[in-house]
Design a protein that fits this description.
By secondary structure, the chain is α/β, with parallel strands linked by helices. Helices cover 40% and strands 17% of the residues. The chain is globular and about 60 Å long. Bound molecules: 3-isopropylmalic acid (IPM) and manganese (II) ion.
Length: 384
Amino acid sequence: MNTEPGTNRTQHPEPRTRHAAPGTRHPICVAVIPGDGIGIDVTAEAVKVIQATGEVFGRRFELVMLPWGADYFLETGISVPPNGHAMLRDEFDAIFMGALGDPRVPDMRHARDILLGTRFELDLYVNHRPVKLLDARLCPLKDRGPEDVNFVAFRENTEGLYVNIGGRFKAGTPDEIAVQEEINTYKGVHRIIRHAFEHAKAHGQTKVCMSDKSNALTFGHALWQRVFGEVAAEFPGIEPVHLYIDALTMQMVKNPAQFQVIVTNNMFGDIVTDLGAQLQGGLGMAASGNLHPGKTSMFEPVHGSAPKYAGKNVANPIGAILSAALMLEYLGCAREADAIEAAVRTAVQTVNGPAEIGGSLGTKETGDFIAAEIKKTNTERTRK
Ligand code: IPM
Ligand code: MN
């Protein structure tokens, strides 16, 4: 946990530390918000897999379930309880979310408060979305394999078109005027672009592609151009590449192998990461982390709540399980994260998974397979 003096944090019997050494006695404390629809189904499997790594590697996880979601909102009128975001920030090492969205709440009020609210209130400015194909069979592109589809997209996560600044004038009439402002700040653009370069440098990557629409959005995206130039100059070993967003989507399909790191704004990042998810085999495969480096961060699969499939044991839990791996990696549990990724890879390659990967397992059975695989592969080694 962040323990800088002066912050009013709840006292714990033992101090919890992020990036705790392997074998630490201190539990890692995670707030789990399954949310709505298939979010509930896939979160159960992510939890199962986290617990499997706990058993194998001897680390304690304290997983605290929070009921926030449509049912709770409809019963109580509360989306996020008072001080709920401060509680997430101050009392947990990380947050795991399933998915939010329910047709009974047509304006998505609760989802906005819970999901977007957490991103904004905890200032989780990095939306980290890996695009990693695990098996050529899953790629919709002809003759493309895992070596061609392996990059990470960084989506700015706290400003852009998502800030909810604007309004409607004469709403519902033929004269309606609707304004939705796109906010781009120097600070916001700088920190996400810098994060992309730092990630590239730390991972031995040689290129960062920034995507905007500065040929049409001549004010807001001129700022992206300026900042990209400034930050790139600080990283001489990394080639800065620029693509307009329309060209980026075309290139992602034409030749995804050219990409290592992509950085873009909130709206464009939302769109290109759905495209990225499909390159890895579908929306159910894609993982994400909403980060403020060094602080309590939130992890969730990229997919939505898919109410139609809720509770039917058909949803693909792999995106949620890989999000749990991202979370553990962020928390300094690299062995656990690697074990999950290896087990998922085996599940995909042996077709032990749901229909989305061509298999015949249900959501639960996929989670069982991955958890068992983690135990089978790692137990002998850790006992020695
Ligand atoms: C995502 C989702 C959300 C977003 C929705 C549910 C508001 O599509 O996480 O990609 O647009 O950020
Ligand atoms: Mn999206």
